[in-house]
């Protein structure tokens, strides 16, 4: 075997980052943090609305990362991701990692009633079947979704970036109260309260049916305090807007909402504008540019450095556990 052939066998694979259609701005920020160019890919719809993907460069033997968030036209974007994974896999990519900042169908993680599907498990199976070798995501709605996969899943956490924002942007954060808007967010909220060494409160909500809140009971004291609502996502914002009104009526001086995934569909923007929030803070796992034009209360925490550092560490074979307690510089 000549020296050139031996070098090709021992050469470490390069990182190749491709962006889907859902969030190209985040993909570009990740690539910039790593000092790389985004890979060449063309995605288009055929006349019959089928998704067509063309990978525009060689990926043979390379370490491929495809960034596609579960937002916007979710079904089209999911199908596009599956096709991109498969296209890279059959083009002999060494490893294909799906970077999914906001995991689609994450709220359908269990059977709430008979004959209901567990769609998050179906999405996991589809990603594996398409050829994904690894999944990187952030703040899954339910951590047990990791168990739906037979491949490695890194469920990154926005908490370090959230703590940094609170300490930098809220001057009197030491006397604030972290509030969980419902029972499902208690673990997330108590973790932040413990890290800040501040008080915790809980809002218990009674639902008439899915998406409609009948009543709320505040457990804890927020009088003369800054209240910070913490949750993993908000969709139509009915819960957090009702919670904000409840906190203000209970004597809170200011109310903030901090969310990992700001999905903001339907009446969400109107409700946020009408509610008494000082600010609604979200990460950029979902694009927010259009929403920010219609709601001045929305502020964005950039998490591209967390995803970029995770990619760098996974490519180098290092642990990503550092990212659960630190924000990369």
UniProtKB/TrEMBL annotation:
Homodimer. The active form is probably a hexamer composed of 3 homodimers. The keyword Isomerase does not apply. This is Ribose-phosphate pyrophosphokinase 1. Residues 15-131 form the Ribose-phosphate pyrophosphokinase N-terminal domain. Keywords: ATP-binding, Kinase, Magnesium, Metal-binding, Nucleotide biosynthesis, Nucleotide-binding, Transferase. Catalyzes the synthesis of phosphoribosylpyrophosphate (PRPP) that is essential for nucleotide synthesis. One of its GO terms (cellular component) is cytoplasm. It comes from the Eukaryota. GO terms for molecular function: ATP binding; kinase activity; magnesium ion binding; ribose phosphate diphosphokinase activity. PANTHER family: RIBOSE-PHOSPHATE DIPHOSPHOKINASE FAMILY MEMBER, RIBOSE-PHOSPHATE PYROPHOSPHOKINASE 1. Belongs to the ribose-phosphate pyrophosphokinase family. It comes from Bos mutus grunniens.
């Amino acid at each position: 075997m000549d020296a050139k052939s031996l070098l090709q066998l021992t050469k470490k694979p390069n990182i190749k980052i491709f962006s889907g259609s859902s969030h190209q701005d985040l993909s570009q920020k990740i690539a910039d943090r790593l000092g790389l160019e985004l890979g060449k890919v063309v995605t288009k719809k055929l006349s019959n609305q089928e998704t067509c993907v063309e990978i525009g460069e060689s990926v043979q033997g390379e370490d491929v990362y495809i960034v596609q968030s579960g937002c916007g036209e979710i079904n089209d974007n999911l199908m596009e991701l599956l096709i991109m994974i498969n296209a890279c896999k059959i083009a002999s990519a060494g490893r294909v990692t799906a970077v999914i900042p906001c995991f689609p169908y994450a709220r359908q993680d269990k059977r709430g009633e008979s004959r209901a599907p567990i769609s998050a498990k179906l999405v996991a199976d589809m990603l594996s079947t398409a050829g994904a070798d690894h999944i990187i995501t952030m703040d899954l709605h339910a951590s047990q979704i990791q168990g739906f996969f037979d491949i490695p899943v890194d469920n990154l956490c926005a908490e370090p970036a959230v703590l940094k924002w609170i300490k930098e942007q809220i001057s009197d954060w030491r006397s604030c109260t972290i509030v969980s808007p419902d029972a499902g967010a208690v673990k997330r909220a108590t973790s932040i309260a413990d890290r800040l060494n501040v008080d915790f409160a809980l809002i218990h909500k009674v639902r008439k049916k899915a998406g409609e809140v009948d009543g709320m009971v505040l457990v804890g004291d927020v009088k003369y305090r800054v209240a910070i609502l913490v949750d993993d996502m908000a969709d139509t914002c009915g819960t957090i807007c009702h919670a904000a009104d409840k906190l203000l009526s209970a004597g809170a001086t200011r109310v903030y909402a901090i969310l990992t995934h700001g999905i903001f569909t339907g009446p969400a923007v109107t409700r946020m504008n009408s509610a008494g929030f000082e600010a609604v803070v979200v990460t950029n796992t979902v694009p927010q540019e259009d929403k920010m034009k219609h709601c001045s209360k929305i502020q964005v925490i950039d998490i591209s450095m967390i995803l970029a550092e995770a990619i760098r560490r996974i490519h180098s074979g290092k642990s990503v556990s550092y990212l659960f307690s630190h924000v990369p510089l």
